[in-house]
Design goal:
With 306 residues, the chain is an alpha/beta fold. It contains twelve helices and ten strands. The strands form two sheets. Strands 1-2-3-4-5-6-7-10 form an eight-stranded parallel beta barrel, surrounded by seven helices. Helix 4 links the parallel strand 3 and strand 4. The longest helix has 22 residues. It is globular.
Length: 306
């Protein structure tokens, strides 16, 4: 069903409103922040989603200036999280890093900090080994996430930043996120004000969820629908499933239905294209932007139009 990402072409590009379309800088991994900002402007997009590595390379103040001078919105900052450690010293380091991310988000002019909460402790540690006799207590890991989100909420509120919980596909529960469904994310957010903790719908991770329509409606009703990220689920999966994202229309995601649900939930914010795919990373950035813009107009935008 899917075409190889490197074979994508835009021979007769569709035209449409790109004002809500946002380039997540992970999609053009080879570009510096300055190149990503320039490319986003050339392509006529209204916003950019930033990863902290690109911000760090440019320097926080310079990054904020680059985006502001270009007249772009910052749709989100990726990412905070990784809060599952059972080690007290490591937990202090993680909380300090998340507080730094909150300050970065505020400085960059976005209220939305994407949170990937972390997997089982040994597996989700940077460069961590495969779990061998380590901590397999998933319930306890989720409990620690809830506690540490609570620790971060006052600081986030103080800076006008929302912690945006991202459920990841269950195949990433061991090493990246012990939250796999939108319902889990909303339940975790529930004790806190909606302006402090929200959720993001990433089609790659939640397209399969039989409760997705109900939970998107719930997120809208609770005022917690803070972001919409799009890309496709393609097969066969790459050796690293994280790199199995594709352009919209190359896989199995029903963007029309999910877009209608997001729109019915009163989401009017930016729509980020976030793709991890080696073939796409190897493609010139301007070509990537042309393809993703065309696919957005063809596959995503119709579902966002009432």
């Amino acid at each position: 069903m899917t075409a190889a990402a490197g074979d994508a072409r835009v021979e007769n590009p569709a035209t449409g409103d790109l004002s809500r379309l946002s380039l997540n800088t992970a999609t053009t991994k080879s570009w510096t922040l300055a190149e990503a900002v320039d490319g986003t402007v050339r392509a006529g997009l209204g916003a950019i989603g930033l990863w902290r590595d690109r911000v760090a390379e440019a320097g926080l103040s310079e990054a904020a200036k680059l985006v502001a001078d270009a007249g772009l919105r910052v749709s989100s900052l990726c990412r905070g999280g990784f809060l599952t450690t059972a080690d007290d010293a490591a937990a202090k380091v993680a909380l300090a890093d998340n507080r730094a991310a909150i300050v970065e988000a505020a400085t960059l002019g976005t209220s939305e900090l994407i949170m990937v909460v972390g997997g089982l402790p040994a597996a989700s540690a940077p460069g961590g080994p495969a779990l061998a006799g380590g901590d397999r207590d998933l319930v306890a890991a989720r409990r620690r996430v809830a506690m540490r989100i609570g620790d971060l909420v006052p600081f986030a509120l103080e800076h006008g930043v929302r912690l945006v919980l991202e459920p990841l596909h269950p195949i990433f529960a061991a090493d990246r996120a012990v939250i796999s469904t939108l319902k889990q994310a909303l339940d975790l957010a529930a004790p806190h004000p909606a302006r402090a903790v929200g959720v993001v719908v990433d089609t790659y991770h939640v397209w399969w969820d039989p409760e997705l329509q109900v939970q998107i409606a719930r997120a809208g009703a609770e005022g917690r629908l803070a972001g919409y990220q799009v890309c496709d689920w393609t097969l066969p999966l790459a050796a690293d499933p994280l790199l199995s994202r594709g352009y919209m229309g190359d896989g199995y995601v029903d963007f029309a239905s999910i877009g209608r649900w997001v729109t019915a939930a009163a989401y009017t914010g930016d729509v980020e294209v976030e793709i991890f795919n080696q073939a796409i990373w190897d493609t010139p950035g301007d070509e990537v932007l042309a393809i993703m813009s065309d696919r957005y107009v063809r596959h995503v935008l119709p579902g966002l139009t009432r």
